[in-house]
Predict the 3D structure of the following.
Amino acid sequence: MRRTFPYMLAATLVLLLSACHNKPSEVPAEPESLNPLPILFGDPFVLAASDGNYYMYGTSLADGFEAYVSADLCNWEPCGQVYRGGTAEAWNIDCFWAPEVYERNGKYYLFFSSNSKDNPTNEGENFQIGVAVSDSPKGPFTDLMNRPVFKAPYPVIDANVLFDDDSGRSYLYFSRCCYKHAVESEIADSARRAGTFQEVEESWVYGVEMEPDFSGIIGEPVLLLAPPTELSDTQAEWESRSVLSGEVNRRWTEGSFIFKHDGTYYMMYSANSYQGAYYAVGYATSDNPLGPFVKSDFNPVLQENVSKGGIVMGTGHNMMFRTPEGQMMTSYHGRLISNPGERVVFIDPMEIDAEGHLIIHGPTVKQDKEETEESE
């Protein structure tokens, strides 16, 4: 199926971006893509708050999280550090990653992952999921409990929360880390035969119902997404690029984000190494918040464009939010070929088309518009 940029989406993007470059009294000029934004975040999460502003949180600090605020998605002002961990009293010590903030009943809840001090076996990766609370999206956030939400038997990262309107229940999603999780598959066999890697570790996405006050989980986590085990699987090639290229002996399924649209649960996820060129986004759907989920035949829906003459690679860990007009947008991080060691933020339109397919119109940068005009 050919995917074209719908007129209404283009018009929405024009209105959003033209507001960034013109005073109210001026006639809107042709907009320029603002991507990448001048924010050095990994795992960017945007909260469309009830005060009419957008707040962005991301992975950047060694001892917590900082935030930015914008009224128009174009001009972003720093809020400073909104959460500080790793203190003498804190349950965590370092590796503060993937913050997500939710507005509930007049409070703001920050879910995140970090290394726990409780590490009796001295593991190299000891990530757990915490939650902090504030009266303001600008913080300061303080730990709701001086402990993880639950004690996972393996390192976990990338917390994501669904507040299901139908059931009134809350669900927590997370990724089990690759650490000490070698999995046999035809992809691992292929790497061994090629002499590249002797084993391949994997990360998997789980979901579980959460207590309404976020104090723990209800029942046992359910495995929802994992890399394919057979080379013939239609998802195998794109989800295994880090391994098949010899980049690293790990296959990731992480950075999940779930939302509901027309009765269907959409779960976006990222595969491949977040440090490499092949980081990309796919999605899966289900009629139940705890699955089973079926991956889309159109995956990946967001990936590098260097192979097509572009300058963006390593696109992943995305989420979805809506503008006041209802337009679906996605934020994610990527890398530029001019500076591949640095993660920068992108925001692009996305949609669910009439057939239920999730489409991300990105990655876009300034030159994409110029190239589109030349091709018309």
Observations:
- The mean pLDDT is 91.
- The chain is about 10% helix and 40% strand.
- The first strand starts at residue 42 and ends at 48.
